[in-house]
Amino acid sequence: MPDSFFAPSKTRKRKRSQEAPSSSRKPGRSAPSKGGKQKASAAPTPKKRRDEELSDETHDSDSAGGIDEMDLRAPDVDPDAYESGEEDEDETPAEKRLRLAKMYLDGVKQGLGLADGEVDAAEIDRELISARLKQDVLEHSGKVHLFVADNYQIEDAPSIRTRGHRFSVTGAVASPSARWLFTSGKDGVIIKWDLHTGRKAYTFYKCRPDKGKGKGKDVSGHTDEVWALAVSPDGKYLASGGKDRRVGVWDVEKNEWVKGFSGHRDHISALAFRKAPPTATTSTQLYSGSFDRTLKLFDLTSMGYVETLFGHQAPVLALDALRAEIAVSAGGRDKTVRFWKIPEETQLVFRGGGGSKWMDDLDGMDIDGEDDEAEGARRKKRAEEKAKETRFVEGSIECVAMIDDQTFVSGGDSGSICLWTTQKKKPVFTQALAHGLDEAHVETEDMPIVRKPRWVTAIGALRYSDLFASGSWDGSIRVWKLDAKLKSFALLGTISAAGVVNSIHFCTPPARVRLQCCMGELARNTRGSIEQETSARILRVAVVGGGPGGLATAIALSKIPNLEVKIYEQASLLREVGAGISIGQNTWNVLELLGVADTLTSGHVIDATLNLNGKTGEEIHRQVKTVSVKRPQIRAQRTKLQSALLAHVPPGVIELSKKLTRVVDKGKEGVELHFKDGTSATADLVVGADGIRSVVRDAAWPDYEIKFTGTTIWRALLPWEDVVKQDPRFATTAWWHGPTTHVWLSPVGEGLGEIAARSWQDPAVHSADKVSWGVPVGNAYVQSHFEEYLPGIREVISWVKEGDWREFAAFAGPELSKLTAWDDKVVLVGDSSHALSGAFGSGAGFAMEDGWVLAQALRYYRNDVHRALPLFDRIRLPYYARMYAHLGEQAAQRAARLERLGDSASYDDRVRVKIITDGGKDMSWIYGNNIGKVWDEAIDALQLE
Ligand SMILES: Cc1cc2nc3c(=O)[nH]c(=O)nc-3n(C[C@H](O)[C@H](O)[C@H](O)COP(=O)(O)OP(=O)(O)OC[C@H]3O[C@@H](n4cnc5c(N)ncnc54)[C@H](O)[C@@H]3O)c2cc1C
Q1: Which range of residues forms the domain containing residue 558?
Q2: 513-538 pLDDT, tens per residue?
Q3: What's the gap in Å between 748 CA and the centre of ligand 1?
Q4: Rounded mean pLDDT of 718-727?
Q5: Is 557 a member of any domain?
Q6: Are residues 52 and 171 in the same domain?
Q7: How far is the CA of 512 from the centre of ligand 1 (A)?
Q8: Which of 246, 432, 642, 756 has its CA 20 to 30 A from that of 21?
Q9: What residue spans do the WD repeats cover (predicted)?
């Protein structure tokens, strides 16, 4: 259950040191004494230990005695150092739950960009919200797992080097969007870098300490070395800390100091934000770790201090937190990792320090009384054993990173990386010598070579995934892949990184995973680094249009390294207009490649299609379909396809209410996109996925024109049970024809069915007033085109609710000789690239194929657009050329057939001649197209050249 349902809406304030024990406090809790030590009389009983010790075996939280019930909060906090929050009081629990649920939904709506009132409006809204709720529940339960390691490209990871600090760099962290990088230094300076350009964007300078009363309390900046940084999950705040013992909070956008929190009694060495983005019910929480051996919790929503967590016996060196109200910390020389359960006010203690066999032997030796010879032999044996030793004693746990809410990894001076779960006291897996050994030649008789493990100096995990990375000073960052059960891990690859790596973070800007690290000459806690290294320049791709083409393109592009993708969609709410859509083998193939196929679970399986005379009911042709395949042809609601695609578009990629009005070629600077709301954006590559009336195409192909084909289509959905009662034949997908009209009736699943009625008018006469696309039209108007149809069909047409019909006037344009323009800065996908107005009833499939091929081409040529876009053209142009040729041929044949019939042909003859009954031409090149195979063949051919 998402904890935001239960978290108080107002900021909690837990000033334990000042309060009498609260009613929520568990009975038997002893009051802490001054100085943080327990009074003798309040010493914990075995059941009320300070730390929650875990058994070796699976931990049963109910039965395992030892859940810590002691107050872990600061007994000696200066209350004036912090601001206060408020407490909820006059609300019944039921009222509170209702209010919180409402606020939570409001937060979700806001996050999805839905305006008030829209939430109940339509199915798509419900689906979006339900998908978000499911995601939230999974994330809150800490169970979301992204298996991304296999797609993470490590080889040749590009990097940016920046120089700006006068003294050593101590830390680096990027904003969640990967736009900004912040680095801290021993010079007391924090530098904000623009990762798009690699240039310095702002410098937060060190301040002079205020010699007066407050001793620097009121100074708007740090007065000494900065050691730790963290950015809030919404990217709004940067937190910093260091030798001046103050936690600084900065406004990232305004480049301003917001607040300084005093309270720590020693240097601040670690900072981490809780990774739940602030909503109406979740505040922005920040944890700090200090050499004073405590952690502190701050609430940045109310800018208040919350509490102090006690337990570590040595300076805290590292911290991490995820969505839930938990944190892990590494206690350096106390050799523990502590897992803090904030609401329960308990901590689990995981003891590192795993031994070496050599040390164990040494400990067990009785050397007294040995003669020289025996001792010599023993020493020699010891030296030999030491040379083979792979496990070393851990003297300090230096770094820790959370994988999910129960799993975390730690590294230390033994060189081992340990994988922990909250269920076990001991590591579930240990990788000894993760970064190898340092060997030093010394001229002693018994130990000519001294081998020491390289410490694991930094560790970072891609949260809720199977990927993490570690750093040391062996010249590489090692990237590790966890197995599916999170029971072990293996090396995935290395990224070269000279110097000592002293911080590693993954950030997940929209559509991509990026590893970011900070390196220096000395190990992390000596804070002696000289330069930092981050990720490379990225290709900025703007996809215009959030239809099937745009969404599929973004999904495919989001898997490509060093590429940032945005979708700009004009609609304020992504809601597919129209009714049903056919998903055949070709479309399933591309959905599989996109990883979306299993998400599309709704639809009506088409076991047969009929062609009938709409006036007489004569069945002219019946085609039986194979349904015993893994993915048979279906007719589904368009919204279902859209929701399935949307579920795979990474968060933050889509920007709604962005109607493109103008695109400008800015030469080497890229392409400038201007939107109706007055905003603009710049991209290196613009993908025109904006449909048949493409603004992108109009800009780059100014002479291109589309024309009304003569066909107008009206589409609507209806509850289908009553429709089938009207005529059982309506249960089967069918075209009911007139000579120049037809009515398509088909179930689309979930009790609904679709009517798509078409009529043809002479384009020479009607083109001027035909500009409609998804425009509502009245019922009587639609009915007027089907007067001669069977009463049952007319009856069904009349059941469509007034206002539900949408009109689509089919337009078409000529074949393009290239789908790319502006020196490979513009490319068209989907309907914009081949203006055929659904002529094959598979245009969504084509659009998605385009997007997938484009992404493969970019990946193949490592984002080199000058090579990737010609490859895209090479694969897709002949395909569309074949479609145009086919349509031309079909039109000529139909005209010839009609001519043969002559003017006196009856209504029924004209209907018959319209329908292809002999199976027609082999159309498997469209409906059986396997785009993955097409790609492979294209690459094989390319390599032979
Ligand atoms: C009657 C009919 C029946 C069809 N049946 C099928 C079928 O059964 N199966 C099938 O696969 N295909 C079918 N198609 C074709 C299919 O609908 C299209 O080929 C497909 O939707 C094309 O996808 P797209 O993403 O290229 O364009 P679209 O779906 O048109 O999406 C374009 C997107 O761009 C946005 N946009 C437009 N202009 C701007 C702008 N200036 N700024 C920002 N955003 C903009 C639009 O709002 C829209 O969201 C049918 C088409 C028609 C007309």
Answers
A1: 540-944
A2: 555 554 443 333 333 332 333 334 68
A3: 18
A4: 94
A5: yes
A6: no
A7: 26
A8: 246
A9: 162-203, 219-260, 309-350, 465-483
